[in-house]
Design goal:
The chain is of the alpha/beta class and 491 residues long. Helices cover 32% and strands 28% of the residues. The protein is built from 16 helices and 24 strands. The strands form 6 sheets. Strands 2-9-1-10-11-12 form a 6-stranded parallel β-sheet, sandwiched between helices. It has a 6-stranded mixed β-sheet with strand order 15-13-16-18-24-23. Helix 1 runs parallel beside helix 2, helix 1 packs across helix 15 and helix 6 (171-180) packs parallel to helix 8 (206-216). The longest helix has 19 residues, at 460-478. It is globular.
Length: 491
């Protein structure tokens, strides 16, 4: 039987996912077989496993940190919001329908057998399982029939570490208030607290830490500093959307759609010193970029209408008319076409005209295509000609089926099109290979008159490994790992 430990937070975005990833890395470095687990994740950032199942990207990041292949049993339930009141429900990697919140909460306890079956698969294969909660365990309106916080901890008898975020203020009240609202049995599960995202001298905190321990009767096991690492985040409140601009040779504007999905597609570009990535959500923010990327969306029709209404579509059309690069990924690729039709209401029933920048038409189907793919770029025309013949790898995850009625294919397989300097593809992760980033950079830099004789780019996968090691170093230096190992042993 694997030992387990659970990370819960006082609220969303306190850093649970990153801390779970860091602990996974530490346990891996210390010679253990370790796996992450989250019973229910709500995110628009998802991934397709080698066997074609869909799961949350946070657990993919944690699996990478643990040095193992992502498996859907690490995240048996994924909720992908399609509106303010409803989500597509992914169970064991396959969509089972769209439910309103009220409907899902009535049914969620029926998913417990699937959760336990997934967890037990990991128990057989690993020494340690690091479990992540969601939001806060003290949401008193949601505590009944909980399956992701204390309810999950009870199902597998997991000891809990409670994390608070000092950067957002009120961390002592966060932690003490959360514990106050828990049942006695739940309080006993909390074996330690952690304070995350601290800036400054820890000695200033010491009196507060001692008072917190006195009031809660639970030890503070560490204060982790505020840090900047290139590690995949959950999609809510992501800091990358608010990063300050920095001087760079290339300015890329990514349309920040209301239901943007898989924004991590841009991470390898963001890691390049040559590129400034800006996420724009209004015509006033658009500026004069070198490249526009229209990313994935969980509701393509609604997000295209949003662009049309706020003037961003007109900006993209003008950008393309100026012979500059427009690149669409998945839902963004669909938007660049002539027409999008949803006859069955997979996202939103009806038909809408696209931006008419690519000679494609898309029809939505109820069955989702989800598969890992690899191949080569075809004969790429225009500014991105340097991508011709370059190998790529990634995955597809979409409801639509797209037909090309002219122009030329972008890739050596179905799933992409190009016309002049407008390019589109269904492939998520299309920039993950360093040669793709290099070819992309060469083309756009050359169009601006820069020399391209010597250009180097980061190996994205090797770079991520370095980031995970740095994360482990930070946690080892700031958290009482001896006590955490003791908690693991005692269960």
């Amino acid at each position: 039987m694997a030992k387990c430990i659970m990370i819960q937070g006082t609220m969303s975005n306190v850093g649970k996912s990153i801390l779970v990833g860091g602990l996974c890395r530490i346990f891996k470095q210390d010679g253990y077989r370790v796996a992450p687990f989250k019973s229910q994740n709500m995110a628009l950032n998802s991934f397709i496993t080698k066997d074609g199942f869909e799961m949350g990207r946070a657990q993919v990041m944690q699996a990478e940190a643990a040095g193992i292949e992502p498996r859907v049993c690490m995240n048996p339930i994924l909720l992908k919001p399609t509106s303010d009141v409803g989500s597509q429900v992914i169970l064991n990697g396959k969509a089972i329908g769209t439910m309103k919140a009220v409907e899902y909460y009535k049914k969620k306890t029926s998913f417990i057998p699937y959760i336990m079956e997934a967890y037990q698969q990991l128990e057989k294969d690993y020494d340690i399982i690091v479990i992540e909660g969601a939001g806060s365990p003290a949401e008193i309106n949601l505590k009944k029939d909980d399956i992701v916080n204390m309810g999950m901890a009870k199902l597998v008898d997991a000891p809990v570490l409670l994390v608070g975020d000092i950067d957002r203020g009120g961390v002592f009240a966060q932690i003490a208030g959360t514990i106050l609202l828990l049942e006695e049995e739940e309080k006993r599960r909390i074996k330690g607290t952690l304070i995350n995202k601290f800036r400054g001298d820890v000695s200033i905190l010491e009196p507060g830490l001692r008072m917190l321990e006195e009031k809660t009767k639970i030890p503070v096991l560490g204060v982790t500093p505020y840090f900047h690492l290139d590690i995949d985040e959950e999609d809510s409140l992501s800091e990358r959307f608010y990063k300050k601009n920095h001087p760079a040779l290339l300015d890329i504007a990514v349309i920040r759609l209301p239901r943007i999905s898989n924004f991590t597609d841009m991470a390898p570009l963001e890691a390049s010193e040559f590129i400034e990535i800006r996420y724009v959500q209004s015509a006033g923010e658009f500026g004069n970029p070198d490249v526009v990327i229209v990313p994935g969306s969980k509701n393509t029709i609604q997000d295209l209408l949003w662009m049309r209404e706020n003037g961003l579509e007109a900006k993209v059309l003008q950008h393309a008319a100026n012979s500059k690069v427009v690149f669409g990924i998945c839902g963004g690729y669909q938007m660049l076409g002539e027409e999008i039709s949803d006859p069955t209401g997979s996202e939103q029933k009806g038909t809408i005209k696209g931006m008419n920048l690519l000679p494609i038409k898309t029809i939505f189907h109820e069955e989702k295509r989800q598969i890992q793919v690899q191949g080569k770029f075809g004969n790429v025309q225009g500014i991105l000609h340097a991508l011709s013949g370059v190998k790529f790898s990634g995955y597809e995850i979409h409801m639509g089926r797209t037909n090309r009625y002219g122009g030329t294919p972008l890739l050596d397989l179905d799933g992409g099109a190009q016309s002049n300097n407008v390019y589109g593809s269904y492939i998520h992760g299309i920039f993950d290979e360093p040669e793709v980033v290099k070819g992309f950079l060469q083309g756009v830099l050359k169009s601006k008159g820069y020399s391209i004789d010597s250009i180097s780019v980061k190996d994205w996968r090797a770079y991520k490994e370095e980031q995970y090691d740095k994360l482990a170093d930070i946690i080892r230096a700031s958290v009482d790992m001896k006590e955490i190992y003791k908690i693991l042993e005692e269960g």
